[in-house]
Amino acid sequence: MNYSETFLNLLKDRQSFLQEIHDGKRLNSKISALLLCSFCCFAIYGSIVGSFHSPMQAVSSAIKLPALYLITLVVCLPALYIFNALFGSKKTLTQHFTYVLSAASVISILLCGFAPITLFFIITISPIKDYAFYLLLNVVIFALTGVFGVTFLYQAMRPADKDSANYKLRLTILRLWLGLYGVVGSQLGWILRPFFGSPGQFEWFRAREGNFITGVWNTLINLLDGAG
Amino acid sequence: MTPALEDLWISALEIERLSGLEVSDHILNGFLWGAYRLPIWSPRRLLVVVTTESLVLGLMLIFATPLGLGFSRGSTSDHAVLAWIGAISLSLWIIRQVRMWFKAQHLRSFMRLLDEVDHYHQVLQAVDLFEQLSGAEQMQPMLMEALHKARESLIAGLMTEKILRQNHGLLSRRQALLDNIEQNLMTLQSIELQHQAQNYSDILNQAVDISIRVQDEVNKLSHLESSR
């Protein structure tokens, strides 16, 4: 079975795909295929997003976008596995990794689906005047694909046995972990920025100061000051 | 393909069950923990290796990004960060190549047996074509027996290789499997003698060749394990 075939199976026959992960079948091949295909999809969308600014930004974003999703996943995985194992999950670390990688792959393919729309706006809007609109458009796309990815993971990893003693607890762990994934992802996104490249000179990384919460807070203050 | 020939086919799932390894046309056990099938010099396999390794280098680049950012914490220059990321990803890639080389050496016998399985499948396809052209409704029982024996030899070879690989010899089953392969070979050779004058002699020759090579491979493995 080749990589793209495995990747397409995730889209076409999700139930069988998830059942195979549940049964521990061909996990190494699945991980390999999902890693490579999601990397390609994220890189394609990243390069399109970055091309709004300059070719160098396109290269930079093609590396940074897969890094954002896949590193966040690897950083948060041990917490999910250990807590689940502690409260009765029989699944292995490899199975956990395959599940979360499947969710990331769903996000990546959805982003690729939005690529022509983003490309259309890149061609038709002005890079300087419409920067805020372009930013908003991408925030909506990332939010939408993220919601689908998270829903997929939530449904796939929900404990099967509703009568088990730790069912509610494990469900809470999963919800908390999804929140944690969002927080870690936001901080990594803050460190790796810029992804879109604000009008002006190209830069690989911005100065590392504060964290994403202080960043959002400062932006809000500036916005309110400007309005006042 | 006729149902009788389909029954003789050794499916990828069966090979995986017998060998304990995930098998594809070019990679064993996924690209992360496995190895490429040797030799890699055929044009198609070389293309797969080059494409996969380019993508793997990209993956290494993204996983090296947080490490590079960490190592260059005091530096304000983007070039220092990029140099760290490049150096780390390249080092990881070289380590991976060395590990893969050792893994490939470890699985060399298994790869040779897989080549024999491929050869056996080609024989089955040739028989199928021959049967279709001749318009025969039923295959000759002797031919079926020959193919069946070749299949048994391959299965015994794959099982022996797995046992020796996982347990490093000293197993009582080893001799039984070796005897089985030898017995099959003798049967095949006697069938070949009976059919030398018929059209099937080429196919039978190939079945005998496969079994001889399986026996040689298992003997080599067996001697290797005994000398350890």
Molecular structure report:
The complex is a heterodimer of chains A (about 230) and B (about 230). Helices cover about 80% and strands about 0% of the residues of chain A. The relative contact order of chain A is 0.13. In chain A, helix 4 runs antiparallel to helix 5 (about 95-125). Chain A has about 230 residues and is mainly α. Chain B is about 80% helix and about 0% strand. Chain B has nine helices and two strands. Chain B has a two-stranded antiparallel ribbon. In chain B, helix 4 (about 45-70) crosses helix 5 (about 80-105) and helix 7 runs antiparallel to helix 8 (about 170-195). The chains are: A mainly alpha (about 230), B mainly alpha (about 230).
Helix-strand category of chain B = mainly alpha
Gross CATH architecture of the largest domain in chain B: Up-down Bundle
Task: Report the average pLDDT across residues of chain B.
Answer: 79
The helical percent of chain B reads over 70%
User: What kind of sheet is the major sheet of chain B?
Assistant: 2 strands, antiparallel
Number of strands of chain B: 2
- What does the radius of gyration of chain A come to? 19 Å
pLDDT averaged residue by residue of chain A = 85
* Whole-number tally of structural domains of chain A: 1
